[in-house]
Amino acid sequence: MRSSNPVFSRRGFSRDTGYAGFNAPPQAGGPAANPYAGANPYATQAPQYAPQYTPQTRPMTMDDVVTRTGLTLGTVIAGATVGWVFLTGQLAFAMGAGLVAMVLGFIQSFMRKPVPALILGYAALEGVFLGALSGFINDLPKMNGAPMQAVLGTMAVFVAMLVAYKTRIVRVTERFTRFVMIAALGFVLLSLVNVLFMVFGGGDGLGFRSGGLGIVFGIVGVVLGALFLAMDFKHVEDGIAYGAPREESWLAAFGLTLTLVWIYWEMLRLISILRD
């Protein structure tokens, strides 16, 4: 099962890695079809001796994912602080940082292995972009405090989706994945069309970022981000269950960071429309 997150869909926990994708969960009372069998000779049979893992090759754990996700998000926050304090109002620098971050993100997404320097570089520059733009929005009339509300909203979405996933209120299935990917594709295409109408027609384009239609579009964006989180949780859970290499935790951190940035940005747009 592939995630709609560009990191997971291109690399990481999928068939492209050579470790193989996740097709079936472990079955109680019988041997599991472990997709990591090719990489771990101890995966499909009870070993006579415990496998000897080095720090580089041992399977990733939840601690690995949490640690690297915390480091990546901490870098985003540090970059956002720099952008807020020193670059608020300097939109040219902010847009430059955002473009470079996007390039680094695409490079990492198409790499065969995670590169921590690329991931942390993306996080730092994306943070600068978000911080500078958030500071600019915060200084606008009626927008004071909107970025903090967006941060709190993002945290609430993360916690709510984590609880819904762990309690199996939300179940990530093949049908769920197809639905989210189709919805995300439609959302992105409509956003691009709206931007084109804004550039060539002026105004707010098709009206997807203002008024009642903008509110509906913003809510859809936040909901899609929440569904992305569920799919990311599923791939992390499967990666740990099937013994994905420790380095894959960097991809998990990268993917989760991308999703949280998406949710924050859509939340900030929605709050800005509601306050206007």
Question: How would you characterize the overall build of this protein?
Answer:
By secondary structure, the chain is mainly α. It is 65% helix and 0% strand.
The whole-number mean of residue pLDDT values reads 82
Give the biggest beta sheet: none
Low confidence ranges: 10-52
Strand content: under 5%
Look at the helices and sheets and give the structural class: mainly alpha
Give the termini separation. 41 Å
Shape: globular
Number of extended strands? 0
Helix content: 55-70%
Along the chain, the helix and strand elements come as HHHHHHHH
Number of helices: 8
- Whole-angstrom Rg: 20 Å
Give me the secondary-structure topology.
Layout: H1 6-10, H2 62-86, H3 91-109, H4 116-138, H5 146-166, H6 174-201, H7 211-241, H8 248-275
What are its keywords?
276 residues, mainly alpha, 8 helices, globular
Question: Can you summarize this structure?
Answer:
65% of the residues lie in helices and 0% in strands.
